Amino acid sequence: MKAICFSAATGGGHDAAAHALAQAFETLGVQCACVDCLALSGARVARAVEGMYVGVVRSHPALFGRIYRAGELVSSPRRKSPVYYANALGRERMEAFLEAERPDVIACTHLFAAQTLTSMGARRARVTAAVMTDYTCAPFWEEVDMDVLYTPSPLLTAQFAAHGVDVSRAMPLGIPASPACVPCADVAGAKAAQGIGVQEAHIVLVGGSMGAGNLPQVARELLSLPARMTVVCGSNERVRARIEAAFAGEPRLRVLGQVRPLYGLLDSADVVVTKPGGLTSTEVMQKRLPLVFVSPIEGVETRNAAFLSGEGAALWAKAPGDAARMAGLLLQDARAREAQRAAQARLVSGTAAMDIARDLIARANERREEGTP
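Above: the chain sequence. Below: its structure as tokens.
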């Protein structure tokens, strides 16, 4: 059996979900490849789309929010969007790729690939799946026609239905994070590996794969707490340099760029402060760590923050000073930490990647037994 996980280079979360699924497939004995669907149109196209997305998110987050809200207005089950027709232009390249690879299963962790597959009609793999990577129904998923749609939570089923998604095909198995992302069994050892004393509080501040959000301001707030801090700036070297210059000589602060995977660093954290990206949030919750959201980008991230904070799995710092106040509360109050962990356990099983992979393998075997071409 063979599987393909399609993603797109518009933020690290989609790739992380695709690789988590691929890891699960390989663990279950299924050959699996992760493919950037944009790359099927050529490296130049992939770089252009990625560059535009990253540039807007980093430098003009308010513009991204306006684009997202416009998408919500256009999104409708009664018609196809311009986004759908743009992705449909890649169906011949997608068809040629699938004809060469002949996978039994295709899982799409990004809308673009799912729309391209939908435009192909019957000319695709035996089993197709859309895999959500945020705790909301983003615009245009109602246009997608897949065999199955894996959603983050049964608590969101009504929202997907209201957006016109065929929820009879939906399975709320969760967002797939790496099966290796589990609660730490040796926190003292994890802290020692990061140069943190076992008695020292450690706050990890994460700006996502692109280092977005106002990391210098949040870092300054958090340094008011009696704790060591590690700031992860992702690929944003400009922000990394700003923080290093602003806090030169501060012994409690360490600044990092790309950290892949993030699990070892997370294991040493007493509190994680992060933008509410779907995958980073899922990884933190899968590890059952105290969690504070800051600087969400308008759109899926504000929806993620609203849902997860509303369910008690995180705190959402909306005003200046809130990040330090909330992180301080979680450092000091064991009951607040345990309440978050209990909520995270209700929302995130920690087995979503394996559960999705097993379900898709079962569907592919059933199709094979039926002799469906």
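The domain at 2-179+351-370 is CATH 3.40.50.2000 (Rossmann fold).
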